[in-house]
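Handout, page 2. Input:
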Amino acid sequence: MSPAERQSYLYELNMEWKDSSSFMDWYRPMLGIAKSENDKKTIWALHYEHFQQRHLLYAVSDNAIELETELLNKAKELGLKEEEIVAEHYVNFGKYNHQLEPPEQLYAHILLEYERMDELGFENFKQFDIARLLFHSGRFMFQLEDYEKALKILLTAEQYAEPTEKGLQIWMFIKNHIQSSYQHQKDVDLGIQYAKEIIWVTKNCPSQVPNQQLFCKTWLGIASVDIASMYLGRGKYEEAEQYANDGYALLKVPLDENEQRLRAEYDMLQVLISIKLELHKLEEAGALLQRAADIAPILDQKEEPEYFKHVKFYQSYARYYELKGDYAAAVRYANFAKPLQDSLERRNDARTLEKIQQRLAAEKYAEQLKLVESEKQLQKMLRNAAIVIMLLVGALAFGNYHRLQYKRKQAMAELEAAKGELNSFTQNLREKSELAENLRLELDKLSRSGERSEYLEKLSRSTILTEDDWTQFRSVFEKVHPNFIEEKKTQYPDLTQAELRYLVLEKLQLTTHEMANMLGVSDGTIRQTKMRMKRKTGEA
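Output:
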């Protein structure tokens, strides 16, 4: 099995639902295999499954954060980016739930987490139940009444939620929070659209498991009530009544039912009674009011009774008696409602102010955190830029060094070639000089014997180093001694051409006789030129 296949198999097992003993029997050998193959992602995935089983492994509040932190450290140790973000999610929410982290910090972490997930791609988090992770964040924003950010996160979560047997609950919570966010933003049409989608799914419940069937039935009732409430707000009482009747039929429970279900029925009654009163169906409204009156004292007996829940109940009774013409009873119930209504409004105003202050504090903290992160990024960029500049400078210096080395080698090669050419040229001149000397000796010999050769005399009188020879010779000489001639001209401005040629031949360390033969002059002429140069240079 490849690492990818192993991870896929692991995440599809739902091992968190196994009992502790069965889980550990499966967990240990899988971890051994993953470690033996250095399969980092599977190693972390196994730790993640172990963490997900925390409620079965008695991971209560004292060690829940310890498990979450261990999960985070393991992701960092293995160098896994997506896994690190997932672990940080649980660490931050764990600290917040145990009041170890203020809401403004969690707010900032959520925004940063969403950005990082977006950069890496939400698809890469699917195996970690991305819909659930995003729902945690969206619900927090919803509770903070930051509906704009809540919708942004929840709408992303919606793309990965599926109403399957495994994902039904999280799908329902996401859809309901999106619906409620639109209601708070006064976008009733979209609110109704999402509530109807919940109704369609719950009517066709994807599971036959009894508790899942009950879950679908409950949410079918809740969604029906929500639609009825939205239609009631729009004055569409007939449409509202149809949904309210359907919802109440699903939510009505015996009076000895648990508090949560009784509370749901009581809330439903407030909507249904209001609709019946608007439609002037007083007999039905009266029966429903009596039902609410039976439930109210049961709720009040709980440890934390919610007296404000009775405001709408008293107002409905006042309206009921007003429509019946019993104004005294109407006033009496209105008086019951008024102080509760005033107190509720004050509480709501204080709560709204508190939420606003929390959001402002959270936004301020998030901005500060963003500035810190930006500063870190800037420092990192500057550091990286400095490294890049150093590397570029090094590369340029290295390239320049090699270029200079190449030019130096090229110049040395050219110089060596020029020296070779000059030596060859000089040798050629020497050979001409030797030929001239032989011709002179032959001429002298013929002269003594009384024989003369016109051609030999002409050749012996000719200049061996012609102007063309000099031009070619000078070009090669200047390659080997590039500044010699110009320096001499600068040093001795009245230097003659014959003197310059003498200095050049002298630089080549030629003898007086060799110079004379090469220039087609006598040895005496060379000696005279040498004496003139000594006077000019002050050496005489």
